Amino acid sequence: MVSSSHEAMHRIFQEDPGIFARTFERLGIPFTEPVAVSLLPTDLTEIKPLERRLDTLLQVETADGGSYLLAVEAQGRKDPDKHSSWAYYLSYLYAKYRLPPLLLIVCQDEATAQWATIPFHLGTPMWRTLTLRPLVLGPHNVPIVADVASAAEDIPVAVFSVLTHSRHPQADTMLRALSGALRKADPDTADLFKELTELGLGTSPAAAIWRDLMAIPTSFFRSETAEKVREEGRVQSRAEDTLTVLEKRGLSVSGEVRERILGCTDAEVVRRWFDLAITVECAEDVFGDE
């Protein structure tokens, strides 16, 4: 059965395919940053009743006019049968799309990642007909993102780093850095990667840490702009309450007074007017000596 962590490990490349190029750039293997990416069908089944499916398949367009296929497979354990499947995937993709295919294996276990890194040869010892050399990302080579500034600079990479190193002793620090970065993100980005992180951590011990961090009120995951909008809404609401108090007390409120109160954006000033509205003898007195 496919686990939630398996799903998150490859799905994150659907959300931000650029993780692939940015991560390998840090490892000294340069790939051109994508300028356009298309999500392709993952069904590689032939006419015969033999079902074969990739986890994620992307068509990547680069700035130099090039194009290639990126097949992403999340691998949870060593499985010798996978070599033949991966070789089939690449041959089939090239035959179908006539584009160079790259196979990326993503792992949360270092032993599995090291196993997947070893080239697989088809043929005899005298003549190797085909050599399978997947790109592999795992705990052995994915950078640890353990501070808020680095996490905020590239949230998708920070999430992928957290998922890859979910069993690392620094997982707690990494999760706190990610939560701090999400605080600065826009609401949609925060919600998306908060959910993806929870999905990817599955039942690991780090998942409990993440759930505790997420128990912080939702306002934690809101940008400065969003908070400013909410503050403006609170000021507007208090201004309307001020007018309501004056009218309920039977005081005459001129158009000029109404316009001035509703037009104020200073929370402290509006709060003072509201307090005065309870005791003043005429509406104009809420402004005091201003």
TrEMBL record:
Q: Which PANTHER family match?
A: SLL0800 PROTEIN (PTHR34613), SLL6017 PROTEIN (PTHR34613:SF1)
Know the name of this protein?
A: Transposase (putative) YhgA-like domain-containing protein
Species name:
Actinacidiphila rubida
